[in-house]
Design goal:
Distance between the termini: 18 Å
Largest sheet: 5 strands, parallel
Helix content: 25-40%
Order of helices and strands: EEEEHEHEHEHEH
Low-confidence stretches: none
Strand content: 15-25%
Structural class: alpha/beta
Oligomer: single chain
Amino acid sequence: MTFADNPILHLLNYTLWPFWVDTHVTPPFKKGKGDQVLDAHGRMIKHYPEVPDVLKELYDQGYQLGVASRTSEIKGANELLRLFGWDKYFKYKEIYPGCKVTHFSKIQKNSGAQLAEMLFFDDEDRNIHDLKKIGVTSILVRNGVNREVVKSGLSQFAK
């Protein structure tokens, strides 16, 4: 299996959950009752509804998943991935302030994949623009990742 068959997919804020982890919620985060995740004020943290199933399906199908985020709340982002039980799905994590091009260059180096073998989902036009310029198939996401968004992204990647 090559990266061209199963590209590396990247996502995080406003793709997995409907907020920026460094501005809209308050770390530290903790487990609540059942599967609940709470912030420092006891507010429940929610993710987009289809995300857990989509991540599991992609992982089970052999896709390599990564997160690339320019958030300054590095610890909080990693904490949420762990508390939601998604940490196991992400082989590559580049979570720190800076340019998405830098994030992807590091993932390229660590994975051995070419930039053209990566598929990126993001909510910000500037990131989509920057990564398209360097050959990454980039999909603008408006209301989180779901099966339809991923299907459409994989279709665009295949072209």
